[in-house]
Amino acid sequence: xxxxxxxxxxxxxCLGSLVGVYSFLYPKTETSQAQIIDEHSKELEEIKExxxxxxxxxxxxxxxxxxxDSQYVIVDLTLKNNRETVYESSIFKITLVDEENYAHSVDxxxxxxxxxxxxxxxxxxxxxxxxxxxxKGHEYELVYTDHLRTGxxxxxVQVDKDE
Length: 163
What we know:
By secondary structure, the chain is mostly beta strands. It has one helix spanning 2-25; strands at 35-38, 46-50, 53-64, 70-81, 87-89, 94-97, 103-105, 118-120, 125-135, 139-146, 151-158.
């Protein structure tokens, strides 16, 4: 019995040593700070970065909905992987917040251009649209959250009143 306890303690010491060596040799170097890359970009285009992923807000359009007080707001985004590893992109990281501060997830029932989900290899760029069924309004906030690395970036989205 005493031998088993000593063996177990030695295994824990070995495991702790391996974890310590690994964390010393491979320290975390990524940052979770979001930043604006180019403040002098096009009129609608805004480029922001979170955890090595450069996200460009290219523009917005709307489409009518069957629901009387709702509309589809469709945002056009570009993702560029500046990291050295493959990035797993997901549309579940994107939400649109309405004027009453309710967040809305992507609605896949409407046809959009491109695909924003999937693997994005280093130095690759992917462009696509994400549609949201939201109450009619003129100002929204687009939110991209990197849940695993705790980074988040936002854009103000303005929809023309005559649309």
